[in-house]
Amino acid sequence: MVPNSNELFLHLSNVNVARGENVVLHDINLSVNAGEHIAILGPNGCGKSTLIKTITCECYPIVQPETQVSIFGRARWDLTELKKRLGVVSAELPGKQTLTTSGRDAVLTGFFSSSTLWPNLTVTDEMRERADQVLTLIDAEQLRDKLVGHMSAGQQRRIMIGRALVASSQMLLLDEPSNALDIAAQQELRNLLRRLAQQGTGILLITHQVSDIIPEIDRILMMKDGRILADGSKTELLTARSLSDLFRTEVHLTEKDGFHHAW
User: For the ABC transporter domain, which residue ranges apply (predicted)?
Assistant: First the structure.
């Protein structure tokens, strides 16, 4: 189902977040519509991953009268229900339990937010049908019965995207998805994300690799020191000068077939 692009997925107003004793996000103001395609750029340690954890309710803002957080129009969520509308793919590859799970079962765990299909979990025929649909969507039918631990890093990342999508295809949050992938696997990942974006899945991509930004992404957020420095169009912000300022080093930029490459 193509999301309603007029539906507000996320609204953050005057959001500050602490990790331990340190405030790592400062005065975050951000609105994102369902179905938007956005990249969040910034150097390591700038707060990108904490922002994702705030969106997924793994981190909570400091309580202040002016702070507002709304996800799909609601300030409070049962996390089990939220995960059915929000798919998250982290930078880390699958954990120990998932490695001994087949590709199809690993996708099915997305219904339960579990590491494997534990005996107490009930899988319905509808869930199995949906998992098969997702395997087709991500071009991973050949991984259906293969153990995740026997897959390449690129295949594992593909299955983790399927896991994130199985309960819903509204919004996909990706945190440094090309980590640990070789050049061929990175290209496969980008082709997959392009296809999902073209089919209506919203994408919120966190990266410090400019080459991860697929042509379908048209909005860029730039973060530094826990703050959003800029929020605008790719044409406006994806420039050598802006990137040089953001990463505090001289950056050269080129573009080909809608992809940008920086060095």
Answer: 10-250
Question: How far is 111 from 257, CA to CA, in rounded Å?
Answer: 37
Beta strands 86-89; 37-41: pairing state? unpaired
The tokens for 237 are 């912000």
Instruction: Give the pLDDT confidence score for residue 83 in this predicted structure.
Output: 75
- C-alpha–C-alpha distance, residues 16 and 65, integer Å: 12
CA 179 to CA 43: how far, in whole Å?
14
Phi (first) and psi of residue 176, to 5 degrees:
50, 60
Residue 258 carries which side chain, given as an amino acid letter? G
H/E run at residue 92: none
Q: Which residues pair with 171 in a beta bridge?
A: 86, 202
The two three-digit tokens of residue 106, written as one number: 């690993």
Quote the CA–CA distance of 7 and 194 in Å, as a whole number. Answer: 22
Residue ranges of the chain whose pLDDT lies below 50: 1-5
Question: What's the CATH architecture for 1-77+218-262?
Answer: 3-Layer(aba) Sandwich (3.40)
